[in-house]
Amino acid sequence: MGDYDPDNIFAKILRGEIPCSRVYEDNDTLAFMDIMPRSDGHLLVIPKTPCRNLLDASPEQLAAVMSTVQKLAKAVVKAFDADGVTVQQFNEAAGGQEVFHLHFHILPRQEGVPMRPPGNMGDFDLIAQHAERVKGALA
Ligand code: AMP
Questions:
Q1: Which of these, 4, 58, 66, lies nearest to 29 by C-alpha position?
Q2: Among 27, 58, 61, 91, which is least packed by CB within 10 angstroms?
Q3: pTM, rounded to two decimals
């Protein structure tokens, strides 16, 4: 396994060097919209402290992130009147990971509607609207 790269894209988001559609943060975690959404409302939850993935995360990082994952999973169900939620998390390149800062995908799902294929950039205005819906559900 490689070392943590402090210049990965999510580290840059955490430092405010690149923008994101932020929906929630607390002392330990940040949640923001995925720019290539595989379902409407697809968002990511990350710890604010560095770790590559599940394999090097501390119990404290995992506890904080999972608490936020549950909070946001409930929020997307409310925001999108979803029938279910898919939570995904990938570890190392062989495990499907592309950004090497621990993150959990939260995808609101509707019965019978498949996830969209990966790798397609979303519409920024629509993603911003979806972020507002999630924030509204958290309020
Ligand atoms: P993975 O590491 O396989 O979980 O994939 C990384 C995820 O991060 C993909 O779903 C990308 O669409 C997403 N992503 C990459 N860059 C950004 C960004 N700047 N803002 C939001 N999501 C991003």
A1: 66
A2: 27
A3: 0.98
